[in-house]
Amino acid sequence: MAAKIKKGDTVVVMRGKEKGKTGEVIKVLRKENRVVVKNVNFVKKHVKAIPGVREGGIYEFEAPIHISNVMLVCPKCGKPTRVGFRMVQEGDTLRKYRFCKKCGENIDLVRERVKK
Questions:
Q1: Is the same domain home to 65 and 84?
Q2: How many structural domains comprise the chain?
Q3: What is the pLDDT of residues 39-83, one digit of tens each?
Q4: Could you give the dihedral angle defined by the CA atoms of residues 114, 76, 29 and 43, in that order, rounded to the nearest 10 degrees?
Q5: Which residue, 36, 60, 109, 113, shows the most beta carbons closer than 10 Å to its own?
Q6: Which residues form the signal peptide (predicted)?
Q7: Backbone angle region of 67, left / alpha / beta, with phi > 0 → left and psi within -120 to 50 → alpha
Q8: Phi and psi, residue 14, nearest 5°
Q9: Do 87 and 112 sit in the same domain of this protein?
């Protein structure tokens, strides 16, 4: 299945304790259907010290959020939107684009194939 949300996309959180926050996707965990969003969903982890390797203490980092709880913010219209895919024939090449379902504009090129 093609990725509807990619690294570098701007997303808004739609559900959970971080609802309404916007951030950039840092990492996509495809097997777990989760994304890590910059400055969203911080958790604290208590870590024991390992001599010569790391210091102990309380570390704070961004935890993954389920992909169904975020929506892509369209770079053209600036609204949270669902993402669709569109195949466009241009000469002898077939191009697959992600597009905004609200305004209909192409977001970016996903794949390009040359027809034989």
A1: no
A2: 2
A3: 999 999 999 999 999 899 999 999 999 999 999 999 998 999 999
A4: 170
A5: 36
A6: none
A7: alpha
A8: -100, -20
A9: yes
Could you count the other beta carbons within 10 Å of the beta carbon of residue 99? 19
Number of helices (H) and strands (E), helices first, in the chain? 0, 11
Tell me the pLDDT tens digit for each residue of 73-94. 999 989 999 999 999 888 889 9
- Burial of residue 116 (CB within 10 Å: 0-12, 13-18, 19+) is exposed
Domain membership of residue 11 as a residue range: 1-73
> Cα separations (Å) of 114 from 18, 89, 94, 110, 111?
43, 10, 6, 14, 10
